[in-house]
Amino acid sequence: MKRVVLISMLLIMLSACRNTASSDISKPISQASTVESSGALSESAEVTTETEPIIENTTSEAELDIEKIEAVQQPLSEIKTEENDLFAKNYNNGEPIFDDNGGYYYKKLVGKNCFYPILYYDNGDGNPIKTNLPESRCFFYDLVFHNDVLYGILHQDLKEGRFFIMKYQNESLEMIINDPIEHWYFAEEGIYYQIDNAIYLTDYDGINSELIVEIPDEFYTDSHNCKYLRGCRFVVYHGYIWYQHYSRYDKTEIPLWNYNIDSKSFTKIYTKINEAYLEAVNNGFLYFSSTNGLWRLNTDTYCIEQVSDQEIRSVNFFDDNILFITSKNEVYKINSDGMIKILDDSNKEFGYDAPYYDDISIYENRIFLEVQYGEDHGKIVEIDLGGRMLKQITSQ
User: Fold this and answer.
1) Where are the alpha helices (DSSP H) in the chain?
2) How far apart are the first and last CA of the chain?
3) 65: left (phi over 0), alpha (psi -120 to 50) or beta
4) How far is CA 350 from the centre of its chain?
5) Structural domain span for residue 92
6) How far apart are CA 19 and CA 16, in angstroms?
7) Which of 324, 281, 297 is nearest to 85 (CA)?
8) How far is C-alpha 171 from the chain's CA centre?
9) How does DSSP classify residue 56?
10) Average pLDDT score over residue span 213-220
11) Which of 155, 169, 328, 341 is 20–30 Å from 311 (CA)?
12) CA atoms of 332 and 281, how far apart (whole Å)
């Protein structure tokens, strides 16, 4: 690893974290459907009195421009969820994956002995058909429909080092890059992907690829030695690559960093969020799940806010509401007025005695919830903002 030589240390006070509203909107509001304070931001959660992140500039022998920033915690600010970046909106979406004609793709298991999910397509008439994708020894991740083509990641044989960028069009599957990749992000300008310690950008046909950045040794974690390969994630947002390494097995000193694509500079970000996992990006915030709740980082001010003190397994955004599923199998919505529980496992509306809520997805003005029951049963349903079922979309 390259030795970083500290040339200068300068503490700069930024005019950041201006919005330090003291109202704790992560506590449930008082009404009939409101939950108790167990789902709210813990009153004992430590909030530092500082309002500006501490920045330290360093330069390495290779003349890399590296900043160190210690994020400062502030109370939860106003919740606005409007996001114009369609790929940021899709980043944490699951299924269904809609095309431009009202049809949609989704995966399901067929039969009790089916281990690999099969991808189906429904044109909207309720009569799904199998796609022409492989039906064995393959998993598909991060599917996105763009320019009349379904793109995604094909994981062959469930082996490390066997992730490929694919596109599916006219019932034909094509690998747009022959080399296996480690991590990826679909963006308007193309597909960003990582191989070893380098991040590239290619067009959607995989014809023109360019090197964007080589990851410095002090930031690089060899994913082939990582017990949880998919824990390393990055997004490209507002001109930066934001890179998060997560593993409960492999510890890293610098779990979060970013890279300014224009200025070619790096920033280490110390959030002090315990075992943070990058879940979503929305309206200027990165959202992280952790063992001590749901958090968000302001990408402009580098201030962090705790959204909830509960562990979560899915989060999404709808009409100035943050929707999330907790590890206790409860579904909440939180907005600037407070937090409300809208579903738990006592709900029988979906046809199951003890439903398991797995994933929340948003498409335009519609909310979709993936509900499981046991190992062999599940469905995707459309719900309203109060958790009531509007329509069943798929079933196992």
Assistant:
1) 86-90
2) 50
3) beta
4) 26
5) 45-340
6) 8
7) 281
8) 29
9) E
10) 88
11) 155
12) 18
